[in-house]
Amino acid sequence: MTTDTAYDLDHPVDDRYSPPPCGELEEIRAVLDDGRLSGGAQVLPLYERALAARFGAARAIAVNSGTSALHAALVAFDVRPGTEVLVPATAPLPTAMPILTCGATPVLVDTLPNSLALDPTDLQRKLTPRTRAVITLPLWGYPNDERAVTGLLADAGVPVIEDAAQAHGTRIANQHAGTLGQVGCFSTHDRKLLSTGEGGFVLTNDHDLADRIDHHTHLGHLRGGHGVNYKLAGPLAAIGLRRLARLDAQLAQRRRNAERILTALPAGGLLRELPYGVQDKPNYYNLVLVATARQVEIADAFHRAGLPPDSIRWRYQPLYHQSLFQPYATACPNAEHLATATIQLPVHPQLPEATVAWIADQTARIAQGETAA
């Protein structure tokens, strides 16, 4: 199928999803009428209970960003100067920056081939008595089955923090991303599936841990303990509460759009979907394809078509290529390949059907080896 839709390098497809109004103004007005706009607003516990129920966790703590969620989780596990945190080399900067904020040392771990899951051999080699936590990462909303390292970490007494910032609704081994480790950290930034503009939340099934995180993010509850002000403002919680009810419909549309593109891929072509298990389900924050050959040429072809992959649009590459993390560089060949070989495509619900069809056509053309402009 062809369409009249035309995009190019100077006019890329809009990958930002702005959900249509769903009654948020009514929720915000109720907060304004109540008069409490801060983290003490009555809507906050309602929002937190709704988050916990939606994602199947015992507790949820709303905070003002995904970065704050990660930092609070690290503090709860006593991450401080002299300690280490293992983190995937595939992680973007916001995942690893809170480690530096704690004064700890990030230890970069490679992934398995064509996977977001940590390489258990590399992880075991890098575990030390100084290791306080391991961060796992379902990047782009794709499942990362970490069962190969779960037993190893349990034996070592090392907790798992899931950075599920992009993984609202992702399923891993039939569980929600963000509920497989001791703590799951989410962002509700403007680009996320659940958006409050700025914000985030923490999920956990450990009530003692939840209390520690809650106290830390609420100035230690002014009880003499150290704390910070990471509270989420009432109006933002009101937006999240209303938009949470629309998440399932958004997930369904993203999956339909992704399927439309995937069915257009030619058998034996140069592109295939990033693999995941039979008990897993991406949320399709992006549809992620892997180029099986001619990776740089294929990435450039998508860029020229107006569909720039992260390696070009955001200069995405393994973490140790960033200047702040160069001192922690280590060989991670699988992460290097993943950064170069992956293509991220928008599939959000605001894309017109004609645009989704056009993306499918372009993807099929490039998968067949037609990479010339």
From TrEMBL:
InterPro entries tied to this protein: DegT/StrS_aminotransferase (IPR000653), PyrdxlP-dep_Trfase (IPR015424), PyrdxlP-dep_Trfase_major (IPR015421), PyrdxlP-dep_Trfase_small (IPR015422)
Keyword terms: Pyridoxal phosphate
Active site (record annotation): K192
GO biological process: polysaccharide biosynthetic process
Region (Disordered): 1-20
Top-rank lineage group of the source organism: Bacteria
Necessary cofactors: pyridoxal 5'-phosphate
Entry-linked Pfam families: DegT_DnrJ_EryC1
Gene3D superfamilies assigned to the protein according to its UniProt record, in alphabetical order: Aspartate Aminotransferase, domain 1 (3.90.1150.10), Type I PLP-dependent aspartate aminotransferase-like (Major domain) (3.40.640.10)
Compositionally biased spans, kind Basic and acidic residues: 8-17
Residues bearing the modification N6-(pyridoxal phosphate)lysine: K192
GO MF annotations, alphabetized: pyridoxal phosphate binding; transaminase activity
Family per similarity comment: Belongs to the DegT/DnrJ/EryC1 family.
Protein name, UniProt field: DegT/DnrJ/EryC1/StrS family aminotransferase
Organism of origin: Micromonospora radicis
